[in-house]
Every structure is written in C-alpha cells, then in structure tokens.
Amino acid sequence: MNAYTIQYDDGFWQDIKNVINWYDAISPDIGDRFLEEFWFAESRIADNPNAFSKVTHSGFRRVLLKKSPYKIYFKVEDKTIFVVALIHQRQLLHFLQQLNFSLIHLN
Which of 5, 8, 2 lies closest to 73, judged by CA? Predict the structure, then answer.
C-alpha cells in the first residue's frame, strides 16, 4: 500500500481515451497494451514518485511509457501526486513551452 494519493488534471482521462481510440482503430490489441502499460506506469509513480527525475525547474517529473511514444508528466507535493499530462514525444516542445508560459504567469 502506498502513502500517496493521485489526482489527475481535468483533461487527462480524455487524453487517455483519445489515445486508446486511435490505437483501437489500428488494432484493439494495441489499445489494450497501451492501457496495460499506462496502469503499470501509474503503479510505478504511486510506489515511488521521487524515483523519477525532475524535468523542469518547477519540479515536474516524467515517466516514459516503454512501448509507445508517450510520457506522463506529474508533480509531487507532500503526499499528493498531481498528474498533469499525457504527452506524445512530438508534442513535447509545445507542452514545455506552454508549461513555462503558464508558470511564469502564475507567479
């Protein structure tokens, strides 16, 4: 049993559904494998979120999904893990630019 709770950004589950639907259009097996990989990554995050390197000065961390081009971005505060995004590696630069912009304007 882990001591962390996980909270997801509002649009996160829609992103997951979109990826699964896209993979299912290719083959249902691929969508199922993606979902299994996601649950495995989530359990790794929940077990030891601080094991993942910080990728920004603001403390965001990431976990790579091993068999797909997606990464999960999250932040740890006290005993809560805030999962903010599921990002395809082609969208990464755009995501980081948006993240930096929003952090500048939050301060």
Answer: 8
Under 8 Å between Cβ of 22 and 56? no
**What residue spans define the domains of the chain?**
5-106
Q: Split the chain (107 residues) into runs of 10 and give each run's mean pLDDT.
A: 85 91 91 94 94 83 88 92 84 54 41
pTM recorded for the entire structure:
0.77
Q: Would you give the end-to-end CA distance of the chain in angstroms?
A: 35
Which tokens is 40 given? Answer: 């495995």
**Rounded Cα distance, 45 and 37, in Å:** 12
Return left, alpha or beta for 8; rule: phi > 0 is left, psi -120 to 50 is alpha, else beta: beta
Find the DSSP H helices in 1-107: 12-26, 28-47, 92-106
**Which pLDDT value is given to residue 72?**
92
Domain 5-106: assigned CATH number: 3.30.2310.20
